[in-house]
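By convention, each integer encodes one residue's backbone shape. The lines below illustrate.
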Amino acid sequence: MKPVKVGLLGLGTVGGGTFNVLQRNAEEIARRAGRGIEISHAAARDYDPAHLPGIEHIQISEDAFGVVEDPELDIVVELIGGYEPARELVLKAIANGKHVVTANKALIATHGNEIFAAAQRQGVMVAFEAAVAGGIPIIKALREGLSANRINWIAGIINGTGNFILTEMRDKGREFADVLAEAQQLGYAEADPTFDVEGIDAAHKLAILGSLAFGIPLQFDKVYTEGISRITGEDVSYAEQLGYRIKHLGITRRTGSGVELRVHPTLIPDRRLIANVDGVMNAVLVHADAVGPTLYYGAGAGSEPTASAVVADLVDVARTLTADPENRVPHLAFQPDALSDLPILAMEDVETAYYLRLCAQDQPGVMADITRIFGDAGISIEAILQQEPQEGEQTVTVILLTRAVRERQMNTAIGRIEGLDTIEGHVTRIRVEHLSGQ
């Protein structure tokens, strides 16, 4: 059987890794796919042939649109990233009847509904395993391995840069800005780290996971997103004292009122497996009704880990090139005409527990005022940690852990506490998830 011809858009970190993995493991990949998979045409403005043995045997140009117009190609692999021209290139490839493989989470999260509809009309596949958690096969797990289950919730460490920063803050007592600078030097964070540290990258990925889990359209614009730039060494230390670790989580959960989609710093009990995922590693915890909890752990980025997922998608497409389009695994796990209109909950309607840190004047009656405010708001306190005042200081740090409560109630209570004359500055809040069932 003749080999599958592939066009590659981008020969950067992931594109180069994809080329090398296909070259190195060509025989094994052909055994799995039932036929060879060959890159025959690539578009790249800058690449290093010294790190791409065999690259001289393929056609390379700077014209990405020339690749998607190549009539010899069966599959186009989009690895240039960003929104445009990636969207235009992918839609053009689909219009030309070509299958598409992409690692572009921003593209899928924001334009996936349009792209999948176009692919459905053309009878082609769009595969995107590498778009979430790098080399971890979480997309395949949700689309296929867990298809017998009703998914209850997903909680994931899905940005390695943020996890590296929080790990360094905890293990070495360093401050956020210091670790961020090192992450940039090591290449974990971009020169502009906003997407990583403010949660946008994780929100792209969570939008995809939520759609796969619950059969809803992609709705990136409805993901509540909060970064880690305001986490202090104090918070990390207090969390440890209370038996918790701070992780930057993406959480999606089905409730009786709708679906939660939220990314924010979260306290997790330190005994949980996911709380012990450190450095740049990723992990996704899925809780389903039949199988219970399953944890997916591995490298969430990097040249060959991400290439592993890209090539796996190529193998999947190669296996199904002759299959009836109606019998392929649906892009978002559920058949297109069976997607649900479950609403996405506003953050103020989400119910969770809280860690609160506040600075109070060291005088009688302060705690009584705080507990009265919580009582009026229907909030139960689970634990209090009060630090001794430093010599000469007139204020103390107070840490409170609450039981689960709706965010709207907590917003009201925090507003009233910050209005007390005895409270200085703002109240720091970090949500708490116990992830029971892990």
